[in-house]
Amino acid sequence: MRHVIGWLLLTPAAILLIAFTYWPIGATVADSLFSRGNPIRPSRFIGLENYALMADDPIFWQVLWNNALFALGTIPASIALALMMALMVNRALPGRALARMAFFTPTILPMIAVANIWLFFYTPDIGLIDQIAGLIGLPGHNWLGDPDTVLGAIIVMTVWKEAGFFMIFYLAALQTIPPELWEAARLEGAARWTYFRRILFPLLMPTTLFVLINAILNSFKLVDHLFILTKGGPDNASNLLLYYIFETAFSFFDTTYAATLTVVLLLVLAVLSLVQYVVLDKRIHYR
Predict the structure, then answer these.
(1) 10: burial class by Cβ within 10 Å (0-12, 13-18, 19+)?
(2) Which residues belong to CATH 1.10.3720.10 in the chain?
(3) pLDDT tens, 5-60?
(4) How far apart are CA 216 and CA 273, in angstroms?
(5) Among 285, 272, 247, 259, which Cα is nearest to 75's?
(6) Contact 214, 166 (CB under 8 A)
(7) How many CB atoms lie within 10 A of CB 164?
(8) Are 212 and 275 in contact (CB under 8 A)?
(9) Contact in structure between 122 and 144 (CB atoms under 8 Å)
(10) Is 45 helix (H, G, I), strand (E, B) or coil?
(11) pTM of the model
């Protein structure tokens, strides 16, 4: 009887999990094995042809490389900045509440609003960055129109948006660490950097793993800003995988190829998650 009650309690969550996670994944994998249909020629089973087409698609490889650079640019920078801000506002400083609010404010702004704010910064000649550069005699630059700078400009904006969100988790974790640890470390002659490297950061590793997982997911799902800033341009220099999937499905109406790209995205996220748990879990000290 006890097992029956347990399964009944799990049933609502299981239904939601199957309906909104496992069923869509299975349907996406199945769609990727069919051809693109139209009113004249219906879709038919083609096996792995979509995957062969994807392997020969130069835009796919460029988008995948862009996403890798985007992840490498945003994840370490946003986590490091979040930890620095958390350490700063965890101390007894004048105006600490105001500093916390200032650091967290970008997080509560919608991504579309953030993109419009930074569009004002990046606009050539009349944007805030070029206006400041002009005051010191530097020429203006089309930050979003240059393939060499567009991805870096988007990375800077994303780090500014995300760091405050990750700071909250680090701040909560720091407030659970007893201050007696720092006092004991000082009595032993440990410097601040030694205390941080040998004691504080290892205790923050569970939070770091959680923040890292969220940062990786965000690096593959934050595409709202591309609608406002670049739409993947110029020449796909800022195009990311999820935006390419959206563009393929809703602009080119090739839903089966979009399903193929989605399967690749799911596999990438699954491999990254597995690596995180296998590699990092050995370095985490749970209390």
Answers:
(1) exposed
(2) 50-283
(3) 878 888 889 899 999 989 999 999 999 999 887 777 788 888 899 999 999 999 99
(4) 9
(5) 272
(6) yes
(7) 22
(8) no
(9) yes
(10) strand
(11) 0.89
Distance CA 277, CA 212 (A): 11
Helices 205-221, 241-250: crossing angle, 10 deg rounding: 30
Prior bond of 234 cis (ω within 30°): yes
If phi over 0 gives left and psi between -120 and 50 gives alpha, with beta otherwise, what is residue 41? beta
Distance of CA 168 to the CA centre of its chain: 16
CATH fold for the domain made of 50-283: MetI-like fold (1.10.3720)
pLDDT tens digits, 107-143: 888 888 888 899 889 988 888 888 888 888 888 889 9
Measure the CA dihedral 229/231/234/240, to 10°: 100
Residue 257 Cα distances to 33, 140, 145, 227, 236, angstroms:
9, 40, 28, 21, 18
